[in-house]
């Protein structure tokens, strides 16, 4: 190959690369590729926190974790909500229900009794306390607790009615209750309930 032609090709190639670089820098994407990472994205890292947006309610987050069966995470979320908003009956009830989900009956009973002391007008708290009492084998007290929950609820909740029916049936004839029927329901505020099965 002729050295003159080789030099000409090299110069032409260098000029094309220089032109492409200059045109890319002047493009509306600011030097970024059209289909790559845009200038608003800083790379593979997560975006920062939007401090102008309202944060999610801690109690609602904890209830969602309870529905997902993440009881340890729910306890943490309830604790954060208690630090932010104070320890009220709803948070105490949630902490008790989460401890019940983890099989910590003593802690669950203590927390739910505290919740009832703070607000004795909430049927879901009474129901959850009844579930703990049933789990602990305190059938007579659980019956009374479910009756109180049912009276406060005016019989509107299927979960509370089912729990009362089960407690009555179990106290009348404890031998014939099938193990598969021993599913107690925890009730949260609003819609939905949590299903807690006794440990076998």
Task: Report on the architecture of this protein.
60% of the residues lie in helices and 4% in strands. The mean pLDDT is 79. The chain has a two-stranded antiparallel ribbon with strand order 1-2. It contains 8 helices and 2 strands. It folds into 2 domains: 1-31; 70-190 and 192-196, Serine Threonine Protein Phosphatase 5, Tetratricopeptide repeat (Alpha Horseshoe). The protein has 200 residues and is mainly α.
Structural class: mainly alpha
Q: CATH superfamily membership of the largest domain, which one? A: Tetratricopeptide repeat domain
Any idea of the CATH topology of the largest domain?
A: Serine Threonine Protein Phosphatase 5, Tetratricopeptide repeat
CATH class of the largest domain: Mainly Alpha
Distance between the termini: 87 Å
Could you report the average pLDDT, rounded to the nearest whole number?
Answer: 79
CATH architecture of the largest domain: Alpha Horseshoe
- The H/E string reads HHHHHHHHEE
Total number of beta strands: 2
- Proportion of residues in helical segments: 55-70%
Domains, number: 2
Overall outline: rod-shaped
What is Rg? 31 Å
Strand content: under 5%
What's the main sheet like? 2 strands, antiparallel
Note the total helix count: 8
Trace the largest sheet across and list its strands: 1-2
Low-confidence stretches: none
